[in-house]
Amino acid sequence: MALLLKALRFSADKHRDQRRRDKQVSPYINHPINVATLLWEEGGVHDIVTIVAALLHDTVEDTNTTNQEIQTLFGTDVLNVVQEVTDDKSLEKAERKRLQIEHAPHKSTRAKLVKLADKICNVQDILYMPPQTWSTERCLEYVAWSEQVINGIRGINPILEAHFDQLVHQARQVLHAKKTA
Fold first, then answer.
1. Domain ranges within the chain, ordered by starting residue
2. Where do transmembrane segments lie in this chain (predicted)?
3. Mapped to the 3 state alphabet, what secondary structure does the chain carry?
4. Are residues 136 and 101 in contact, defined by beta-carbon separation less than 8 angstroms?
5. For 133-153, what is the HEC assignment?
6. What is the spatial distance between Cα 83 and Cα 65, in angstroms, rounded to a whole number?
7. Hey, which residues are catalytic here?
C-alpha cells in the first residue's frame, strides 16, 4: 500500500500543471488514476507492479521524470513496465503510432495490461469527453488506431478486451452519427 500511495503522490506532483484537452480541462492526474482503477476493479489485476506502473505510465513521456527517478523510487520492475509503454518523443508522431502497433505483441504481460487499460480510458474519453480541438474524423482515426494496437495484445485479459470492444463499437456509432448529422 505504501508503494501505491507513493506512486500516486509522485504522479500527481509530476502531472500537477497538466490538463486534459476536454471541454472541462480536467486535471491530467485523473487519467493515470483511471487507468490503475480500471485494471484493479474491472480487470481484476491486483499485481502491485502493474498498478504502480499504471499510475506512472505517462510520467517519463510527458513530464521531466527520468528513468533513474522511477528506478530509485519504485524499483526496476516498475521502471521496466513504464519504459515499455513510453513512446520515444524524439520520433515523429506517425512513427510513434506505427511502432506502438508493431511492438504491442512483444510487450510483457504487465505492459500489455497497462496499454490495454490506457487505450480503454482514452477511447472512453473520446466518447464522453473528447478533446475540444479534435474533429470527428480525428476521433475516428484514434479509435481505429487504438484497435490496431489492442489487436496485437489480445488474449491478455478477456474482460478488459470485451470492455474495449464495446467502447469501440459505441464510439464508432456515436462518431459516425455525428459525422452524418
1. 1-180
2. none
3. CHHHHHHHHHHHHHCCCCECCCCCCCECCHHHHHHHHHHHHHCCCCCHHHHHHHHHCCHHHHCCCCHHHHHHHHCHHHHHHHHHCCCCCCCCHHHHHHHHHHHHHHCCHHHHHHHHHHHHHHHHHHHHCCCCCCCHHHHHHHHHHHHHHHHCCCCCCHHHHHHHHHHHHHHHHHHHHHHHC
4. no
5. CCCHHHHHHHHHHHHHHHHCC
6. 12
7. 61-62
What is the rounded distance in angstroms from the CA atom of residue 165 to the CA atom of residue 150?
A: 10
Confidence (pLDDT) at 24: 86
Cell 521502471 belongs to 79
Q: Which grid coordinates are listed for 19?
A: 490538463
pLDDT at 110: 98
Q: Does domain 1-180 have CATH number 1.10.3210.10?
A: yes
Q: How far apart are CA 179 and CA 72, in angstroms?
A: 48
